[in-house]
Design goal:
Number of helices: 2
Distance between the termini: 24 Å
Oligomer: single chain
Structural class: mainly beta
Number of domains: 1
Order of helices and strands: EEEEEEHEHEEEE
Helix content: under 10%
């Protein structure tokens, strides 16, 4: 989802083995992604760090790490998801997932509840919870 280029790699020497530092990355697909503002602690020091995540399951991965706590979470949504003419970054209060049936097929869908109570759906074909079955909360 995020693509990096050798020409954007920065020659910083304080990073750990196997890590790289990039001056920019390209978003390769026109899809929703997440911005997580976190506190990271190693038992002695606490720092803030920001994670750019391409899937909601990666939020769950962050939550499982005891040294990381999410201070705030945002969804960055493309126009076809947020119903406007431009990308939007919005505070995220909850993520749920469920199943939809559409023209004889069944599929997965995510529901993004924003801080202001508005809901966005991972499919532009859906605009309310009534069409969704077996809804389960993934993040709150």
């Amino acid at each position: 989802m995020f693509q990096t280029f050798d020409s954007a790699k920065l020659p910083i020497f304080w990073k750990d083995v196997g890590e790289s530092v990039w001056s920019y990355a390209e978003l390769m697909v026109n899809a929703t992604w997440f911005y997580a503002d976190c506190k990271v602690t190693d038992g002695v020091d606490t720092v803030t760090s920001t994670y750019l995540l391409s899937t909601s399951s990666q939020i769950g991965d962050l939550i499982k790490q005891p040294e990381i706590s999410i201070r705030s979470l945002y969804i960055v949504s493309p126009p076809y998801i947020n119903g406007t003419d431009s990308w939007k970054m919005s505070p995220l209060a909850k993520i749920s997932a469920g199943k939809i049936r559409y023209e004889g097929c069944e599929g997965d869908i995510e529901i993004y509840e924003l801080g202001n109570g508005e809901k966005l759906y991972s499919s532009c074909e859906i605009n309310n919870d009534e069409q969704i079955e077996n809804i389960k909360i993934l993040y709150s």
